[in-house]
Design goal:
Blueprint (H helix, E strand, L loop, with lengths): L8 H13 L6 E5 L11 E5 L6 E6 L3 H7 E2 L10 E2 L6 H10 L2 H7 L5 H13 L5
Antiparallel strand pairs: 1-2, 2-3, 4-5
Helix pairs in contact: 3-5
Length: 132
C-alpha cells in the first residue's frame, strides 16, 4: 500500500469512501485536519479500528519544503551526512538528543541551534529513518 503522503487527492478520497463503506473490516478515518496542501491533501489524519475505538494510527504530512530549508547534505561537511543548515550538527544526533533532553536545555548547551532547527531535525529523522 502506498504511503498517504504519496497519494493524490482522488486516491485518498477513494480510500476514505471504501473505508466508510467497510467500517467493520478495517481502520476508518475518524478525523482530518481542515488545513490542506495545494493538492487538497490534509495535513493530518487519525485512523481507528472501529467507530468509537481508540486511535490506532496517525498520519501527519510534513512540510518537506520547510525541512529542505533546514537540512543540508554537503560532501565537504561531515562526509555528507544530513546536518542542520549553518551548523555542523548531525540531524540524527540532534533528534536523538531531543528525545532525551528538553529543548531549552539543548539550546543552552548548543547556542548554534534554534528551536526551529531542533524541530526540523526531529521531523526529518522521523520521516527519513537513519540508514543502517
Amino acid at each position: 500500500m502506498s504511503k498517504l503522503a504519496d497519494m493524490s487527492r482522488d486516491q485518498l478520497v477513494a480510500i476514505i469512501e471504501r473505508l466508510l463503506a467497510e467500517r467493520s473490516s478495517g481502520p476508518i478515518i475518524t478525523g482530518m485536519s481542515s488545513r490542506c496542501d495545494r493538492n487538497g491533501l490534509p495535513d493530518h489524519l487519525l485512523l481507528c479500528a472501529a467507530p468509537g475505538a481508540d486511535v490506532v494510527a496517525s498520519y501527519r504530512r510534513v512540510n518537506v519544503q520547510r525541512l529542505a530549508e533546514h537540512v543540508v547534505s554537503d560532501p565537504d561537511i561531515r562526509g555528507g551526512i544530513p546536518t542542520l543548515e549553518g551548523t555542523r550538527c548531525g540531524v540524527y544526533e540532534v533528534a536523538d538528543l531531543a528525545a532525551a533532553e528538553p529543548v531549552d536545555r539543548i539550546l543552552e548547551e548548543y547556542p548554534s541551534l534554534t528551536a526551529e532547527l531542533i524541530q526540523a531535525a526531529v521531523e526529518y529523522a522521523r520521516e527519513n529513518p537513519r540508514p543502517v
